[in-house]
Design a protein that fits this description.
119 residues, mainly alpha
Amino acid sequence: MKFLSKLISQLLIASMIFLPFSAQAGMIATDQVVASAAAQANRAKIADFVARADVQKQMETLGLTTANAQDRVAALTDEEVQRIAGKIDSAPAGASGTGTAWVVAAVIAIAVLVYIYWK
């Protein structure tokens, strides 16, 4: 028994010496994390757009099934996803409206300040 434990311990020591450990750690840049999160958010936005009933109806009239459209969305590159998500936001029916509300509020505030200043 002592011989077996001595043999096993020698084999373990030899394997730790001669077999390389390859552990790799590195820093992840903030811009990489932000880009990844933005890409995931844009993919979710496109998937939600494709899941809408009116969009599915339009796709069916064009001969595209919902499953096929979802597969195509999954196959898009990050640049294509970013471009399409930007088009969804700029479209009147797909826009969120909060950006437009802020712009209108800013224009009204500037107009009031100019009116007060010149009065």
